[in-house]
């Protein structure tokens, strides 16, 4: 089956069997930030942005991604939003292990783009991640620091709903 997608900003035609997981398709294309965590979506090491939202790619069948916008961590690392998150995590003392990076970073990104000033409860409610290499407290501090970096960079909140 061939499907048209935008992958990391580039229109492409991808080919795979309909039931193949999006994670496997991306791994086959060489995107190593997408880890195959067991096909249950729980570890979030396979997280990507699909149409702007973080999703576990190991539970997404290839057949449903036609015309989707897919962003992997490899591409996201080239953005200013990534630099804000990286700086915020560093300031909070978070050293990502390499396995959970995409889940942690894309979850932080989703919170940051959704809320102007998220409360601790909003961060907790919107982070169903496994804190394998950091603590929940450090993650919350990292998100808040990333927001501060973004605010300094842009001069204002952007895309916030609250």
Outline the structure in words.
By secondary structure, this protein is of the alpha+beta class. The protein has helices at 22-28, 73-76, 80-91, 101-114, 120-125, 136-154; strands spanning 2-7, 10-15, 47-50, 53-56, 69-71. Helix content is 38%, strand content 14%. A five-stranded mixed beta sheet has the order 2-1-5-3-4. It starts with a strand and ends in an 8-residue tail after the last helix.
Order of helices and strands: EEHEEEHHHHH
Q: Strands across the major sheet, in which order?
A: 2-1-5-3-4
By DSSP, the count of extended strands is 5
Biggest sheet layout: 5 strands, mixed
Topology:
Layout: E1 2-7, E2 10-15, H1 22-28, E3 47-50, E4 53-56, E5 69-71, H2 73-76, H3 80-91, H4 101-114, H5 120-125, H6 136-154
Parallel strand pairs: 1-5
Antiparallel strand pairs: 1-2, 3-4, 3-5
Which key terms come to mind for this protein?
alpha+beta, 6 helices, 162 residues, 5-stranded mixed beta sheet
Briefly characterize the structure.
The protein is an alpha+beta fold and 162 residues long.
